[in-house]
TrEMBL record:
<feature type="domain" description="TonB-dependent receptor-like beta-barrel">
    <location>
        <begin position="248"/>
        <end position="655"/>
    </location>
</feature>
<keyword id="KW-0675">Receptor</keyword>
<keyword id="KW-0812">Transmembrane</keyword>
<feature type="domain" description="TonB-dependent receptor plug">
    <location>
        <begin position="51"/>
        <end position="162"/>
    </location>
</feature>
<keyword id="KW-0408">Iron</keyword>
<keyword id="KW-0472">Membrane</keyword>
<keyword id="KW-0410">Iron transport</keyword>
<feature type="signal peptide">
    <location>
        <begin position="1"/>
        <end position="22"/>
    </location>
</feature>
<dbReference type="InterPro" id="IPR000531">
    <property type="entry name" value="Beta-barrel_TonB"/>
</dbReference>
<keyword id="KW-1134">Transmembrane beta strand</keyword>
<protein>
    <submittedName>
        <fullName>TonB-dependent receptor</fullName>
    </submittedName>
</protein>
<dbReference type="Pfam" id="PF00593">
    <property type="entry name" value="TonB_dep_Rec_b-barrel"/>
</dbReference>
<keyword id="KW-0998">Cell outer membrane</keyword>
<keyword id="KW-0813">Transport</keyword>
<feature type="short sequence motif" description="TonB C-terminal box">
    <location>
        <begin position="673"/>
        <end position="690"/>
    </location>
</feature>
<keyword id="KW-0798">TonB box</keyword>
<dbReference type="InterPro" id="IPR039426">
    <property type="entry name" value="TonB-dep_rcpt-like"/>
</dbReference>
Length: 690
């Protein structure tokens, strides 16, 4: 471990001595050309647009909201103000946060499914559809864009929603910041960011170290992260950016799930076999990327990106049997996009055309663990490989000053293959191939300079991941009965802002999913999860985001989701679950931030969270109660010199010590559905900038 941490520091020093196109804020002329309006330009939909010309539900979280008084450890800190997004499992680092956007991703027992994750344009979602977010660096994040709804036409497989994180490259907010934090449950974190520009060169380096014992028994974590960018302006129109992301996570303990009775006895206890088998995981990951942009490539703009990632992973599950597993993964790929603006008659047409390609190779193994804890031998030894290629085109046609029509199409080929290297129980090698078309269409009406109405429709697909292809009959290979799920999304929306400081974003959505993938466990298989297609599901809802700058010192932000997530038809081994709720999803959430801002970085934010009730199983027999949480954070800042600032801040989570669950395990075996959340917790930090 010492060698890897030394490498992190050495790379940071090298980068200091020595981007993907993201969010920009710029001033443009209003539709009637009478007033100048500050307009946000977004790029997660690949075709960069002004927000009020985008016919889709897109939310952007900016740098100040990500950083101000936050720990910057978990995505839920920043995305709580985005409607339609629900995040669980903030306290179990071995399982990882479970993210759902309009219900996509809810089925995952760990990690992320059904959602495309990007950081600086590099995909963290694999060709088979799974993603990990443990290497996302919120300390250096400049913006987070969220597409709330199926987006396969943009990113292919597993794009029920998109989360795109853009980190600093040193051109904006140069300088150095050192931050230290401490808090409840032995929480400790230190971070260092430094960046700047010198002529044609710019750089930004972020280092962080996290240690925490955790609220529950056997839930400690140790994690080190480096994220660095080095950018070179080749001339006025061309630039080259190098990206390095390194993760060293030598320990993330897994306290496991509890029954309701165990929760009542002692909330912070660990589950069965967790301590005996030392359940948890370790991760070592390195990502490098190289990106080239040419803003004068003929009549348009060219963006070319390439990346390589290596990941070593080991995990011990909490049961005797085939519970010790691991893999070494190589993941690499490239993409090219060409953007151009031209005229169709007297109507401006903007389009992007491109190609994506990626390859994933996992050398996987699984071993038996005896009841005594001794490792007794291999039960799986196989090579899993997935290759995805996609070609896409998307265009916006301005019909006049107010109306814009959008069309997009994409073709994807995804091939999954398993080579079984352990043939004592027969050869379980095999392959599956999927060829999928996706399309989208939208219409935007800018009925006032700062107000927009839109409608859109689009399709998406989601192949099962390798882990979801697991064969319940035993051994490796594919479960031939599992097929991809496909979705059709429709939405209408309104967004805008008024001169009195009030802004709004309202979306009505309706999603129909065929062959919904749902997890289940077999009796006697403990925590081993398998998957089946659950027929059809319906997801309908209303998303509302409001912001009101009341005066110079007070601001109110609110995000409300009212949804209806139901099985339309689902026959599980002869038992009908038609019209049942989809497990693991609340149908009402409401988050509010009331912020007071004073002078010299002085602030205070009161946050309220309402999470509606849920069910934990397909039969809807296990209920999970709704709850309210109140969080509070505040800070003060001082200028110590011309270039030196000191900031201190503190936060209280779950101010009124409300008992609730950090995670609900869907269709869990042995009734172990629940992972209790901490009660009232505190944290405080100090940051020096110069």
């Amino acid at each position: 471990m010492t060698t890897r941490r030394t490498l992190l520091l050495a790379l940071a020093g090298a980068m200091t001595a020595g981007t993907a196109h993201g969010e920009e804020i710029e001033t443009v002329d209003a539709v009637d050309n009478t007033d100048a309006v500050e307009t946000m330009v977004i790029s997660a939909p690949r075709l960069a647009r002004e927000l009020y010309d985008t016919p889709a539900a897109v939310s952007t979280v900016e740098r100040e909201s990500i950083r101000r008084g936050q720990q910057r450890v978990r995505l839920d800190e920043s995305l709580g103000q985005v409607p339609g997004v629900f995040i669980q499992n903030r306290d179990n680092f071995a399982q990882g946060q479970r993210i759902a956007i309009r219900g996509f991703g809810a089925r995952a027992p760990f990690g992320v499914r059904g959602i495309t994750i990007l950081m600086d344009g590099i995909p963290y979602t694999l060709p088979d559809g799974q993603a990990q977010i443990d290497a996302i660096d919120l300390d250096s994040a400049e913006s987070i864009e969220v597409i709330r709804g199926p987006s396969s036409v943009l990113y292919g497989n597993a794009a029920g929603g998109v989360i795109s994180v853009t980190t600093a490259d040193g051109r904006n907010n140069p300088g150095t910041r050192l931050r230290v934090e401490g808090g409840s449950d032995d929480y400790r974190k230190a971070s260092l960011q430094t960046g700047g520009a010198n002529g044609d060169w710019s750089h930004h380096v972020s280092l962080s170290a996290l240690n925490q014992n955790g609220y529950r028994d056997h839930s400690s974590v140790e994690k080190y992260l480096l994220n660095a960018k080095l950018r070179r302006e080749l001339d006025e129109d061309r630039a080259l950016t190098a990206i390095v992301n390194l993760l060293d996570n030598p320990r993330s303990e897994d306290p496991g799930g509890l029954t309701r009775e165990q929760v009542g006895e002692k909330r912070h206890q660990a589950g069965a076999f967790t301590k005996e088998y030392d359940t948890g995981q370790s991760v070592d990951q390195q990502v490098v990327g190289l990106q080239y942009e040419d803003l004068a490539a003929g009549p348009g703009e060219l963006y070319v990106k390439g990346f390589y990632s290596w990941r070593h992973f080991e995990q011990q599950l909490p049961y005797p049997g085939d519970s010790l597993l691991g893999y070494d993964r190589d993941f690499f790929g490239a993409s090219a996009e060409y953007h151009q603006t031209l005229s169709l008659g007297d109507m401006p047409l903007r389009y992007v055309a491109g190609v994506d390609a990626a390859h994933q190779r996992d050398d996987r193994w699984r071993r038996n663990v005896a009841f005594s804890g001794n490792v007794t031998g291999k039960v799986e030894d196989e090579t899993q490989s997935a290759t995805s290629t996609g070609v896409f085109v998307q265009g916006d046609l301005d019909l006049d000053d107010q109306w814009t029509a959008s069309l997009g199409a994409r073709y994807d080929r995804v091939r999954l293959k398993i080579n079984d290297d352990l043939t004592t129980e027969g050869d379980n090698s095999g392959d599956r191939e999927f060829n999928e078309w996706s399309g989208s269409a939208g219409l935007s009406y800018r009925y006032l300079p700062d107000h927009q109405a839109y409608v859109n429709t689009g399709t998406s697909f989601e192949t099962p991941t390798f882990s979801e292809f697991a064969n319940p009959a035993g051994g490796g290979g594919f479960n031939s009965s599992v097929e991809p799920q496909k979705a059709w999304n429709r939405e209408i929306g309104l967004r805008g802002h008024f001169n009195n400081g009030l802004n709004y974003d309202v979306a009505l959505f309706s999603v129909r999913v065929r062959d919904e993938l749902v997890p289940y466990s077999l009796e006697g298989d403990n925590d081993r999860t398998f998957y089946q297609n659950a027929g059809d599901t319906n997801r309908d809802g209303l998303e509302v985001a409001l912001g009101w700058q009341i005066d110079e010192t007070w601001r109110l932000d609110s995000a409300l989701t009212l949804a209806h997530y139901r099985f339309d038809s689902f026959d599980a081994d002869g038992e009908r679950h038609d019209s049942n709720r989809i497990p693991g999803l609340p149908e009402q959430t409401w988050v509010n931030w009331l912020t007071w801002e004073g002078q010299d970085q002085r602030f205070a934010t009161l946050e309220t969270q309402y999470i509606g009730d849920m069910v934990a199983d397909n039969a809807n027999d296990v209920d999970v109660d709704s709850y309210w949480l109140i969080n509070l954070r505040a800070g003060e800042g001082w200028r110590l010199g011309n270039d030196t600032n000191l900031n201190v801040y503190a936060g209280i989570r779950n101010l009124f010590d409300r008992e609730h669950f950090a995670n609900t395990r869907i269709n869990a075996s042995n009734d172990r559905y629940f992972e209790p959340a901490p009660g009232r917790t505190f944290y405080a930090g100090l940051e020096v900038g110069f």
